[in-house]
Design brief:
It is built from 15 helices and no strands. By secondary structure, the protein is an all-alpha fold. It is globular and about 45 Å long. The N terminus is likely disordered. This is Sugar phosphate transporter domain-containing protein.
């Protein structure tokens, strides 16, 4: 039966052998390349809009933004699935999925609960990490995620890497430490939260790599499970902390500018989560992390122009350039299949 899906859906099964490569000898498919590029575009824009909400408008409740993003994501997924535009299961047409009694079986929800809880940790810590560090240094520190990702992939799926890949990652980390050594706006709490964000990101991506390919769900199905399992927990957490009350008393709550920023943040979060699942399942958790490094050039440039916060320093620039060179080398080795 012909599928009416309007968006590509990453299957949990291994890719078929006839999947078209970027060029002969490449280790990356065209679908994988499109997923990687889509992720980088969404990630750049989302960081800027989250930064605008938390810093420019001084919105005090990062958890509420995360909750709004999660609710919007679940609503859009439900509507798209009911309109037979998407399916939650791999290798299943949207029409067949619509005839099912339940969107996702209870057993599948239970099986994917580790992924959902790592997603919740990833969302909460990552959102908070944007607040305390300027955008250029935030993206610099986030590059160290590659080390944590490689460790988690080895622990969970025994993934091993070639020397060229290890060398390019080492260059990325060296650049991050050089760039951060002279940060004149150093904030110990902000740095700590960013490193916690790196660890949670590595755990989350490695969990996607492990569960995403064995759950029988595609990218939309995994996103649905995350929202259904994490949404109620996050709602109770925001009630317990008093975040919802603080939100109701926020002076710019009904400001058109703030509402537009919040809406765009929710839309971008939906597409970002989708592209993360797609990129990680089509490529790998490490490739997803390196894509995060490559998009940093645009994030740093725009963040520096819009938000400022980091004085010019030659050592910082050298560190940034080393990180970009390392990311470029990784992309090159990945493309040629080394």
């Amino acid at each position: 039966m012909k599928s009416s899906s309007i968006l590509p859906m990453a299957a949990s099964d291994p890719l078929p052998r006839m999947e078209e490569k970027i060029f002969k000898g490449s280790a990356m498919t065209k679908r994988g390349a499109y997923a990687a590029i889509s992720y980088m575009i969404c990630a750049v824009l989302l960081v800027l809009f989250n930064k605008a909400a938390l810093s420019s408008y001084n919105f005090p409740c990062a958890n509420v933004i995360t909750l709004c993003q999660m609710i919007c994501s679940c609503c859009w997924l439900y509507i798209l699935q009911r309109w037979k535009l998407i399916s939650f299961n791999s290798n299943e047409s949207p029409v067949i999925s619509e005839n099912s009694k339940t969107l996702i079986p209870l057993k599948t929800l239970i099986d994917t609960s580790p992924l959902a809880f790592t997603y919740l940790l990833y969302m909460l810590v990552t959102m908070e990490s944007v607040r305390g560090v300027n955008v250029p240094m935030y993206t610099t520190l986030r590059r160290t995620t590659v080390v944590f990702t490689m460790i988690m992939e080895y622990v969970l799926v025994r993934q091993k890497y070639t020397r060229p890949i290890l060398g390019s990652v080492a260059l990325i980390v060296l650049g991050a430490f050089i760039a951060g050594a002279r940060d004149l706006s150093f904030d110990s709490y902000g740095y700590l939260v960013v490193f916690l964000s790196n660890i949670s990101t590595a755990i989350y991506l490695a969990t996607i790599s492990r569960f995403g390919k064995s759950s029988g769900l595609n990218s939309f199905g995994l996103m649905w499970c995350n929202g259904i399992l994490c949404g109620p927990i996050l709602l109770l957490w925001t009630l317990f902390r008093g975040d919802l009350e603080m939100t109701m008393n926020f002076p710019y709550l009904l400001s058109p500018g703030f509402l537009i920023v919040l809406l765009l943040s929710c839309i971008l979060a939906f597409f970002l989560n989708y592209s993360i699942f797609l990129n990680t399942t089509l490529n790998s958790a490490l490739t997803q992390t390196i894509c995060g490094n490559l998009k940093d050039l645009f994030t740093i440039t725009l963040g520096w122009i819009i938000f400022g916060g980091l004085p010019f320093d030659l050592l910082n620039v050298i560190g940034q350039l080393l990180g970009f060179i390392g990311s470029g080398l990784y992309a090159y080795y990945k493309l040629i299949g080394k």
